[in-house]
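Protocol step 6 of 9: fold each sequence in the batch and record its structure tokens directly after the sequence line. For illustration, a two-sequence batch is reproduced in full.

Sequence one:
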Amino acid sequence: MPRQRVHSRIDRSPPKLPLQRLLQYGRAYRTQIWQATLCSILNKFFDLAPPVLIGIAVDVVVQQQNSLLSKLGITDVFEQLVILSLLTVVIWVLESTFEYAYARLWRNLAQTIQHDLRLDAYRHIQELELEYFEARSTGGLLAILNDDINQLERFLDFGANDLLQVATTVILIGGAFFVMAPSVAWMAMLPMPFILWGSIAFQKLLAPKYADVREKVSLLSARLTNNLGGIMTIKSFTTEVYEVDRLAEESEAYRRSNRKAIALSAAFVPLIRMIILAGFIAILLYGGLEATRGRISVGTYSVMVFLIQRLLWPLTRLGETLDQYQRAMASTTRVMNLLDTPIAIHSGHIPLFPGAVRGEVNIRDITFAYRDRAPVVEHLSLQIPAGQTIAIVGSTGSGKSTLVKLLLRLYEVQSGEITLDNIDIRDLQLGDLRRAIGLVSQDVFLFHGTVRENIAYGNPTATDREIIRAAQIAEAHDFILQLPQGYDTIVGERGQKLSGGQRQRIAIARAVLKDPPILILDEATSAVDNETEAAIQRSLEKITANRTTIAIAHRLSTIRNADRIYVMEHGRIVEHGRHEQLLDAQGIYANLWRVQMGLR
């Protein structure tokens, strides 16, 4: 099914109960659900038929020519038994066929929903603003995308079928009892209200306990993800024992939470067994007395004894099914809450074609503050002419990198506006805006894969010739050829098999291949040695020609040739001009220059 259609069915005002929310999400799978449900019901129908045939067989043996089948015109006992044998074969074949059908349908449905739900959740996460990720742990989100969705899949594999078959059993056998022996049937049904009441009571008690279990899983996952990502820091500070102790605390909390849920869920089956026992004994005794008094036939009594077991004993599995259900509903709540998270930054409606972008950027009187913090950028204005290189310098925390995030609409300005070619960037289609901007950051992120794949990340259809050309412009081609497998060398997670300078040059090659009309260099040379910096500077001179470039830098030597330099302090522009003009002004920039040149 088309992904857009799946995504569009998510309702932003969901029902209150998690099962209702899941059913609402599953509307697109109604056909598969009905097919699986029908097969589960038919399987249970044919599964319950053999005890009825046994009762008829007993009736044939005892009553012979006066049996139930003889009333249909079949008086010969042998013929009656042959017919029963043939019916048995047909029923067993049908029961097995529908068992295969429901198992396949439910499991395939579980896999499909798991697949679609994970993609929908991940797609929704990608559309959320950067602030959402900065306020949450990666491990917690991974727990939702993996463990919670897998928990739901496990319930759909088996639990849904079990609930349907229990309900079918109660309806069919209860109805049969009232038809065959109304005077005895009420005894069989007497335990039902107590079982249903017990099930509902246990659900209410278990729901908060499993919600706590899912929360503990999320915290444990967050700890593991954080530690694996910081393994080098752990080793360098020799804090392995300390981290094992911290992980043990999270794991123990998860174990305690599970123990509380298990202690309650494990009590369900023994209690239900006692209630079931009462119903079974009542049928055995009272039904037997009714048969000896001739009020019901021996065949009917035989059927009832068999069926009461088929009715009541499967209910002992209700505890395990209920356990699966509550775990699944706790996971469903977490997944649906993620899907219900509102998207704060929405795409505009005006398309932007990179080939037609001039690259003129105007920032007019913008103000921005992170949540619960003082403004980082306040009443800031600056103009970036098309095709020119401007530089932004200033002390740490002055708001330089925040400007980059605002320009990419990773955050939204709270007042003022930013325009690209005289169009408010909030009116532009978000994907087009970001495709028009190439970012080379200080903190280079390379994906686990080959050098070739990382260079072509923004342009996956690029040819080998284009990839090599981009690497040559970034002065990365020579060192790539010296790697063990050249362009097919695996860089490792986050590019950890490469040096900082190598990662930086691959990032530049990636931006070159993207060929954006606007290029942002955010501290692109701050973490490399002088030789690497010189190589990067040569490559930057090539790719910034005739392209709007915004360079954020601490090293003033890298931006001295910029067309205009802006100096930021406390979220405001305090100086601007060319390098020589700013030195002559003897202000903040001049002081920074003297410090970096060792002149004071």
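Sequence two, same batch, same settings:
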Amino acid sequence: MTARVEQFEFQAEARHLLDLMIHSVYSNKDSFLRELISNASDALDKLRLESLRNKDLDVDTSDLHIEIEPDAHSRTLTVRDNGIGMTRKEVVDLIGTLAKSGTAELRQKLREAKDAVASEELIGQFGIGFYSTFMVADKVELLTRKAGETEATRWVSSGDGTYTVETVDDAPQGTEITLHLKPEDKEDELGDYTSEWKIRELVKKYSDFIAWPIRMEVERRTPAAEDGGDEHITVETQTLNSMKALWAKGRDEVSDDEYKEFYKHIAHAWDDPLEVISMTAEGAFEYRALLFIPSQAPFDMFMRGAKTGVQLYVKRVFVMADCDQLMPTYLRFIKGVVDAEDMSLNVSREILQQDRQLTAIRRRLTKKVLSTIRTMQAERPHDYATLWTQFGAVLKEGLITDLDNQDTLLRISSFASTHSDTELTTLAGYVERMKEGQQHIFYATGQSRDQLLRSPHLEAFKAKGFEVLLLTDPVDEVWVGSVSEFDGKPLQSVAKGEVDLDSEDDKAAHDAARQEQEKEFAGLLDWLKETLADHVKEVRLSTRLTESPACLITDNLGITPALARMYRASGQTVAVGKRILELNPGHQLITNLKLAHQRSEDDAARQRLAEAAELLYGTALLAEGDVPDDPVKFAELLADRLSHTLV
């Protein structure tokens, strides 16, 4: 058969990344070997799992292992495995091309990366550890054959922006990666990557816990005998790693560095974990769990189809990489391993969905993670602040989906508020600061803190010193509809229903004054309700406005326009009812509108007044970050009105 060789160009993002690698931006070059071994371990896991699922797959799984072969003479380092392997298409898709879902994000991150540490984090975030080989190699060759296939594929690149892919006939099952190492730096105290002791050191440091044997042939020299015999050289194959599962050990048996390296292996990450959670359960359901809270969010955390991070083992045998039944979706950032004692190895996702044991394990893991976060919140506020910054928006999804743990989630949640420009507050902290006689926890939802602080809805609250939570994550629009109260204090939107901020001492006087104002403005209110009937259900005087002329209010049980837009974006059809237009009777515009209404006697005057009503409604929409129902008409009315005021 004629070999088919093709040359390809890397994506622009991949070329940028290669350039960073080749010019040694990264501080820890040793980690390239960890990445290769981790990938090889994954390939062995996948082959073993596929052999269980597909009984027709003709593969030998009796001696799955990883080999490391250094060659000081040719300055090469080879890492091979007899795992699942790759097809030609998979080689191009997985190595030559970055995941399409992350290219835009990667491009942005690459632009923002100003130093070695920031750049280094990108490798783990985007799952592109293979590229780290170019930190130490001038050329990289990959030879791979997919299990069950006859043809193999060779991939070669010097990191110059191109790579070649060749179809070959003769290759063992699995993947072999050969690094043509850069010239040795004699002043490098870290040692050379072809030396036995250096490889031993790196495997022990980064990959000792790998479940598969990592082997290397080593030479052993027997000194010459005193009678003049020749020096004797033997070659023996040694296993470099202990293969001891960290989750089967006690916390006092494992060092912090070992936990960090294990986390980086299973998460394919470069950050250190924020917290390590070790669990052992005995009784009806026996299992061990080793979980990690990352210190940095993955780039795809909010993407559709983002993977959960918990791996399922049964009696130390790998079963599933991303077991979504072990952790609720709102804890999808948690990484780790669960090793169950009593479960079928040949288990599918469909079976897991019905498995009572998995449901019980999931419940316990969830409670353990949440209690750990609560302890962190109380005892390590700096780490908690990091966690909330990275994962707070995801955790709040649980307020909607996990009613059993809703109270715990409310207590570990933090929110911006008008109390402080820089510090977040808990709901418990808010309740402690509530004014005497205050019955509600007030909140506002919107796109940004600055927008909310300028919102007309907050005017009376700020004027009278009532603290308001400022909720700006998209999920906030949803969960506030699922949470009715906290510690007996109802949650109340500043943009919904009616508000009464008067103290008992002021209530009687203010009620009397409002009754007089309602009589005074009754004609205008009725006319506006009729004129704006297509837009609003009611027009009334406001108790929440102090500076703005008008604002729009949603009924307590109504759907906000922002929430409706979110539903529509997800393909759901949601009808938004008409809202309430509230007027500020103390504003000059409203006073002038009342006088103009009283004086309007002819059709021209009434037409001008109707246009003013449309402009008033449109400005109320703009003030809350929305747009008028008919932007073109609004712009024409505004331009016409401005043209008359300038003459």
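Proceed to step 7 once all outputs are recorded. Observation for sequence two: The longest strand covers residues 137-145.
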